[in-house]
Amino acid sequence: MAWFQKRQYTVIKNVSKPTLVRIGTEGALWESCPNCKELALIETLIKNLRVCPHCSYHMRLSADERIQMLTDPGSFSPMFMDIRPTNPLGFPGYGEKLSSEMAAKEAIQTGRASMDGLPVALGVMEFGFMGGSMGTVVGERVSRLFDHASREKLPVLLVTSSGGARMQEGIFSLMQMAKTAAAVAEYRQSCTRPFVCLLCDPTTGGTTASFAMLGDILIGESGALIGFAGPRVIEQTIRQKLPAGFQRSEFLLEHGFLDLVLPRKDIRPTLTKIFQWV
Amino acid sequence: MPFYYDFEHPIESLEEDVEKLNARNAQGEDVREKLEKLRARLDEKKRDVYSNLTAWQKVQMARHPMRPTVLQILPHVIDDFLELHGDRGFRDDPAVMTGMGRLGGRTLLMAIQVRGKTTQENIRRNFGMPHPEGYRKSLRIFQTAERLACPILTLVDTPGAYPGLAAEERGQAEAIARNLLEMSRLNVPIVTVILSEGGSGGALGLAVADRVYMLENAVYSVISPEGCAAILWKDAARAAEAASALKLTADELLKLGVIDGIVPEPMGGAHRDVITCGKEIRRTLETAFEDLSREPALELGKRRRMRFRTFGG
Known about the structure:
Chain A has helices at about 40-45, 65-70, 95-100, 135-150, 170-190, 205-210, 230-240, 250-255, 265-275, and strands at about 20, 30, 40, 75-80, 110-115, 120-125, 155-160, 195-205, 215-220, 260. Chain A has about 280 residues and is an alpha/beta fold.
């Protein structure tokens, strides 16, 4: 056996939604890992923070699961949730999407929470709602969160998971990139607390190219896809297959664009440490 | 070789007729009366076609093969230019040109996206699609501008930031994000003119400005109509429909309050009279910089942030 081993990227294949499998008489529920297709008992998965016990693939979490995982139980109090989406361009078919049940929470939940007793301004994106895309609601909630945090001298934690700008809101969604960047600039000037960004699978497009890359400390979750252009667009442009591990957290760390890459279980203790220190 | 789109066909045939009459006139034949009539009809037809362009036709105009590049227009906009190269980190990106320019009595620091005219030049300029070093070079120039207390002019002309392997490796997203942040902090006036295509984050990375203007036939959008149609309806052929839904023309964006003004183009597009087009841009810039020079310099960054904070909120 070699003494030193080259660091291996988490190789993630074409990922689809995990499928539930019912086996056994007592209704034991199994879920198959979207990456390695191995079955895992749901109880095990929950204990393991939805990380596959076989291939350590980090399954995507909903915003609610994320909040549960990161904050003290019951400490999250939502804010700015009265900002509701509109259809500013009258984009065909978009109005119906907004009338669905999930539209109230939109692609981000923002508010205050505590982590091991430390108060923090928290925003968690929801990939499940229109691909976590950033429209005016996401832009406005993020910006107000920064305003609130700078008034209250709170650190900011944003958990991103987004396909980019929401094209149904056209130019307004593009302007949210400038808006959130301006909010970060304002926060940096008026407050000495850190803005930490936790980039989760996937964070691409306009979200990466604005507030997600502007954190004082950038943490990538293991194996998360992080980039500007999506892999399919790049493959079409260069007409080549992309190398394994391209645009994954580990790749960005190696190229100097992230401070840390952490497995899911280490995220909360690390964040607590940061918020205690600065 | 002139180029006409399908919707320009009536104009093409009339222009051919005028050419023929002109030739006969030159040979000494007296066809002046006919020529006058034909010219009047041509003008009327042009007004008819060009003042009623659909969103998709505007996209086509913005991508017109004969549309002048920045290098052709610039000499008619500013008095003098000194190019300054390099991002001081990796490379000089040919898709973005930076430097100092003179306009009236002012020295401007400029960042300009450049497409090529010929295929060869386009390959060198990467079709106006910057790599991260292009944005970093611009940022360096912006910081120089603040240090020297000079206003900034950016000219946007890009289908988008380059979506390639090397661009991702060098942090395209980070480069754009940093520009958005830093541009919203600068305490010198910034004016942006979108010349033809303003493609998404690749355009915005140079367009966080106090005043944003568009040429009449320019478009500015979060995604290309083709990309939008392909994602939403799995059919890139429905781009025309997407173009009108995205509201990406100068008229629409002015109505939405996202831009501050429209720079008129010569009838039929900028390529028909580059000099007039350049002069119109110059006139717009002169007023814009004059206005901005009267605003308190220390408030500029704050005001700019307020401007972008109000969009869609």
